[in-house]
Amino acid sequence: MKLRLWGATIVGACVLGLTSPLAVQPASAAPASGAGVSAYYTDTTTLGDFVPTFNRITGLDRTANGQYALIAEDVLPARFFTARIGYSSETASFVGRPALNGGGTVLGPWFVPLLPGGAQFEGIRKTNGGYTVVSGGNNQFVRQIGPLGQFVRDLRLPAAWRPTSKSGVAGQRGLTGLAVGPQGQVSVLTAGGLKQDGRTSARLLTFGKTDREFVYRTDANKVAADVLAINSTDFLVLERGAGTLTNIFWTTTRDATSVTGKKKLSGKERAMPKRRIFSTTGTPRLATGDMSGLAWGNWHPDTPYAKKRSRTLLVVSQNAGSPTRVHSFEVQLPK
User: pTM for the complete prediction?
Assistant: First the structure.
């Protein structure tokens, strides 16, 4: 596709130069302020009808050079796909049409297929020789599956997250974002507050021998749609509002108050600091649609003596009455 660099410059702060779980050649850390970080919208491709599903593609993840895993939202049946999505850093554009090359069915315990309505998948990430998937909606869980979709285990949510009539993950404010850090640590993010918390007080949970929880505060009238690991403490968060208004923020658990094991938030906790690095309001010609998932692309070739490195960022979006789109951005960061 034709190169398009007319997108708005992403300004602000992010520490994308720190080691990432998918970094090809990790760049040195950017300044804490994120000075000099910028990015440009470059291109869009469509998935068209190559994915044989009636459901929306809500998540994608880079699994290898040009290779991605994708997951559909609902259960008819519950399917994920693998595909090649070619992209050229030299022309800053997609190469050819995306091509499906595999996938499988997400199964429950005892290899039982999920019933219709049994999940509302929001994300997929490659982990431990298979995948981790997250479901929101009416049946919320974080599930690890094998390479063909066979059930491995469900990750246990903390007590405060388990749904009851008055507490826990709540419908469309529940599980939505999924990230995997450089040591394979799995993190999930709620779209908004748990039932017992304020609507904008989303929680980030990182599973481990000792789980870790922090508050991520969304903007008013926004929900968090996805989260993408930069390193062990830093993330990108996709926030979506009314219509097609979407922002991407850099955020970090550094200097945020730990709320691990806390049943109910007071609202006075120090939330994860965040800084907006992209807004669709600055790209009026971008057919944003309903942006729902983030994925890294490759690092671009390094230029000796240059002061910056670049990496591709992909965003998948749904568009009523039109094919699913994948948008690309070039993120530039200081060495």
Answer: 0.89
